[in-house]
User: Fold this.
Amino acid sequence: MVRDAGQKVPAAVLFDMDGTLVDSEKLWTIALDDYAAHRGGALSEPTRELMVGSNMSRSMRLLLTDLGLPDGDADVAAAAQWVAGRMTELFAEGLPWRPGAAEALREAKALGLRTALVTSTIRSLTERALETIGRDNFEVTVCGDEVDGRNKPDPEPYLKAARLLGVDPAECVAFEDSPTGVAAAEAAGCAVIAIPCEVALDAGPHRTLYGALTEVDLAALGDLFTEAA
Assistant:
């Protein structure tokens, strides 16, 4: 997509949710710790870090393994149901925005950018979150239980969003906060704006690191493609 005077802009902007738009990773920590306590254990910090940006099934398997509990499919499903129920309670209490996130969504709309939400969170919880972040801020949403098990760091969530929008992922910019999410977006061919939340991120050839969304000029995102060329 090209603007006046030859200024290139992304075909679409693809936003992660947890840790990128809303500060919900801390709520996940509460729910996971509560489940661990419910089962008579405690979640280790290294395992919690591995869960950041991951999908529900993988996170529950990591959780059960960390607690020394059986991790068969039925056990994973039962843990997921418990944690999802707790997260529903926490989401109902309100979701705090990440700095600059609400403003970034408003700016994207004002600029006429096409947008998608690409999250590892399951649809039922995402629908709760959309009550805060606004369904009308996104043309499409892709959730962690809608990619046939090919969750981040697999590129499929971003590739699916691009397919639904009818755009080339190589002409999209993805906003991510976790190593898992950044890997997924880069594997899909997207340019990545990486803004760490709970876990540090390393520099890389296909990502631009920022300290906060407040530092990002959405009107200048086309420069990412100019630099790549």
Summary: Confidence is low (pLDDT under 50) at residues 1-5. The longest helix spans residues 73-92. The first strand starts at residue 12 and ends at 15.
